[in-house]
Amino acid sequence: MYINQLTVEKGLASNSVQAYASDLNFFTDFIDSCHLEGLCQVDTAVILKYLISMQKKGLSSRTRARRLVALRGLFGFLKKEGLIKQDPTAGIDLPKTGLKLPVVLNRREVERLLNCPDRKTVRGCRDAAMLELAYGSGLRVSELVNCRMRQIDLEAGFIRVSGKGERQRIVPMGRKAQESLTDYLSWARPRLLAKYRSESLFVARAGRPMSRQGFWKLIKKYAARAGISSKVTPHGLRHSFATHLLEGGADLRSVQAMLGHVDIATTQIYTHLTQQQLIRAHRKYHPRG
Fold this sequence. Notes:
Elements: H1 2-8, H2 14-33, H3 44-56, H4 61-80, H5 107-114, H6 122-137, H7 141-145, E1 152-153, E2 158-162, E3 168-172, H8 175-193, H9 212-225, H10 234-247, H11 252-259, H12 264-267, H13 269-285
């Protein structure tokens, strides 16, 4: 019943729902081992015992925190439905996971990466358009490779994105991305398609859609060619997009909307990143730093 609510009411993507279900299955296995007859017999002591058992098994604080979040959602739902009187997870703090800052390319690295594809070749023109759109609009890799022709409005300069949980948003694509897409659509894409037809924006051989793995390989190849030593991923371009926006003075709510984050707390990790940069600048340039 709770899993159905995640799918129908909250609109979570199937991968997210499966992750929640998997985390909850670990807990049901645990209460079975405790010889409890069901969730109605779970109290705070059982939750704490579960957290301790995970720690003894060597599970990371991040994994333990994620599983506790899944339990909070479950017991919050059960209480709301009147199936339990008390939420046993109430008052239990999340295990400290530490702040994991995303890997972000600086502006020069991004420029080198985007300039790597040979735009005079068919595949190079396509690759350049993909990289420009990924960075210029902050798309998730799944959003990029699953993009359809009808989602692009070149004249207005925006893309309609279908994100996690099928939530729709409109994101500007930027002048460089517009120019690269115009070149790609005018001559490179027709040559890649040849006699085939496809609704996919980015195509590979025989009109097949570009895959996630294919785009990962492209980024890895061009990052090496650009001489970038840090690990570059499709998500790294998304992180760079958000960070560079905030550095340029964009407000957090605007960045949240463009990234498609439901909770602004998810977006706030980028403010931590820019704060670290401010601290370094202060220490370097301020007489009392």
